[in-house]
Amino acid sequence: MNKKLAAALSGGAVLMVAVSGCSDGGDKGPDPKLVSWAKTVCDAVPAQDAKIRSANASIAAIATDTNLPPKEAQKTYAAAFQDMSEGYKALADALDSAGAPPGIDGGAKLQQDAAKNLVGLSTSYTDLKKKVDGLNTKDQGKFAKGLKEVALQTKEVGKQSDSGTQALKRLESGDVKEAMAEQPSCKVAASGSAQPTASTTAG
């Protein structure tokens, strides 16, 4: 059961790849204002990416540990969900602070949609943390049953994550993608995100 929960959580790293993707660029460089906008967004990515990847890793680390006491498992899951919630909220705040990407048709809507999806994910992980906090750790059977319910809820969050990925891809296209590709902070996050996604889903 824990493996299912770990797999459902893997969407976090996928989202980070979407927001920090790199491209080869085109013949002409992007608008300097857009590059400045991209820097505002990208500079917020590495720290939050690390937080989300670490949360995924902590879940993966206990996924196969059937001997872990319920209280320890509860503590790990709760901390991971909390970190994911904070990570996505910080990314949403970065998009809000950056505002609409300059010179992009429909940029405001694209930016708002992406931020809205990130806020939604943050809220969902907060709800999951509350669910885990409320589990009965004194009864192994009840705890296992409660974790199954959490796993079902994470599947719904996974669908949300897919939606968020698409929203970010719509924002991060064309000149916006090119501008982000010039940012070292986005390049670092993108290179570090691919690996945890694969390892988390492997189980």
Automatic annotation (TrEMBL):
Q: Which domain of life is it from?
A: Bacteria
UniProt cross-references to PROSITE patterns, sorted A to Z: PROKAR_LIPOPROTEIN
* Record region (Disordered): 174-203
| Amino acid composition bias (Polar residues), ranges on this chain | 192-203
Protein name according to UniProt: Small secreted protein
- Organism, by scientific name, is Streptomyces argyrophylli
